[in-house]
Amino acid sequence: MHESLFSYINQNAASPLTSDEEALIMASFQPKKYRKKQYFLQEGDVCKYVGFIVKGAMRQYSVDDKGAEHIVNLFLENWWVSDRESAVMLTPSRYNIDTWEDTELLVATVADMVDLIGKIPLFGQMTRLMDQRSFIASQRRLNSTISNTADKRYEEFADNHPKFIQRFPQHIIASYLGITKDTLSRVRKQAMKK
Amino acid sequence: MHESLFSYINQNAASPLTSDEEALIMASFQPKKYRKKQYFLQEGDVCKYVGFIVKGAMRQYSVDDKGAEHIVNLFLENWWVSDRESAVMLTPSRYNIDTWEDTELLVATVADMVDLIGKIPLFGQMTRLMDQRSFIASQRRLNSTISNTADKRYEEFADNHPKFIQRFPQHIIASYLGITKDTLSRVRKQAMKK
DNA sequence: TCCACTCATCGACATTTGTCTACGTTTTTT
DNA sequence: AAAAAACGTAGACAAATGTCGATGAGTGGA
Predict the structure, then answer these.
(1) Which domain holds residue B10?
(2) Residue at B194 is within a domain
């Protein structure tokens, strides 16, 4: 089960892990199974864990005054899951994270992650790359959100993330794009005509 | 002039820099002065430099098919400036970065930054923190953008970034928020009544 | 099998936001 | 000092998006 994590790390660092390093990592990450709709993190709690998705699908979202959910992030296999704001600042999270499908995770504490970054340079490189990529993806999405209308946002999204479209229902995608499910339905109808 | 950079680093790392380390850093960062409206980076170029703002104000924006500008980021004193996507991926940038006021920068090449991260652990810590903070800020803004209507976005923004409001004109703020200057004007008018 | 629930779509209507043109003021440039 | 440009606001209208209630198809659980 840890293999998918090791191969992920090896793909994202300059050289392969030694078996000692693998052992260290293995010791920090516990396999956990979540059934559909279970919480990984609840609003108000401090995020103390980081998960690596071996199999499954998850979402991160906030809930507004009216009870409406707003999807901040979607996750699939080989993605890291956590609320970084809460984990880094040690503040109560404003988000919920839960599973959308039955999901297998490798879970480590934030403290152990920091430890591994200190002990294994390759691990540090990998997390640095992961931080940078997350930021880049976030900036792209932001740019798309402030620059385009709903139809172009959906088109871009569908092109760049076909797997999300396959795995998550439309009202989730709509929320991720910052529109209502009704608007997404209209947008798709228009797009069909072409 | 390098002092503001040193004190920034010392504020964001576990222990203070040694004078050897300061010398190394000093050698990599060249002071540069930009007059208002000068480009730091143009769309299509690969971002090869990273700037630290000693004094001044800058903006990062994309330009759409119709020639409209969309503000992706605003920068003031003690902020790092670069297009991280271009710098990390070595791809042509989709953004422009220019000065909004006369600005004093400390500029290093991306290659030198990587070098410093390798040579000075404290510098690595600082950039890691900076990456994480950038991501957190980006996520917050994204959440606000997809969750709120224009008036709440502006209210939140004004509360969290009063300095931006003082230094940048309204049409820039509007673009940053993903609305037109006309809408922002209306929103402000409504807010006055309360 | 039946029931409850989720999901996507639709239409009518309300609200928000964008577009465009115009105007007066302020700021910058010549 | 004069001219030009940038800036904020305004109103009228158009377009995009949200809201709500209803429907039917599909899904999973009891």
Answers:
(1) 2-133
(2) yes
Chain D footprint positions (protein CB, under 7 Å): 6-12, 16-21
Cβ of residue A150 near strand D, that is under 7 Å? yes
> Most B CBs within 10 Å: which of A90, A110, A138, as the mutation test of the B interface?
A138
Task: Report the distance separating Cα B136 and Cα B134, nearest Å.
Answer: 5
CATH code for the domain in which residue A128 is found: 2.60.120.10
Final residue of a structural domain among B86, B108, B133:
B133
C-alpha separations of B29 from A72, A81, A146, B3, B18 in Å: 37, 36, 33, 12, 17
* Residue B194 pLDDT: 60
pLDDT in tens, B167-177: 999 999 999 99
Instruction: Classify residue B29 by its DSSP letter.
Output: P
Query: Would A139 be classed as within a structural domain?
Result: no
Q: How many domains does chain A have?
A: 2
Chain B residue numbers with beta carbons less than 8 Å from the beta carbon of A72 are: 139, 142-143, 146
| Residue B143 in domain | no
The tens place of each residue's pLDDT in chain B, 194 residues long, gives 789 999 999 999 889 999 999 999 999 999 999 999 999 999 999 999 999 999 999 999 999 988 899 999 999 999 999 999 999 999 999 999 999 999 999 999 999 999 999 999 999 999 999 999 999 999 999 999 999 999 999 999 999 999 999 999 999 999 999 999 999 999 999 998 76
- Chain B residue closest to A60 (CA)? B143
Beta strand B58-63 pairing with B69-75: antiparallel
Q: What is the pTM of this model?
A: 0.95
Give the domain-ending residue among B81, B106, B133.
Answer: B133
Per-residue CA distances from B102 to B106, B128, B163, B164 (Å): 14, 29, 17, 16
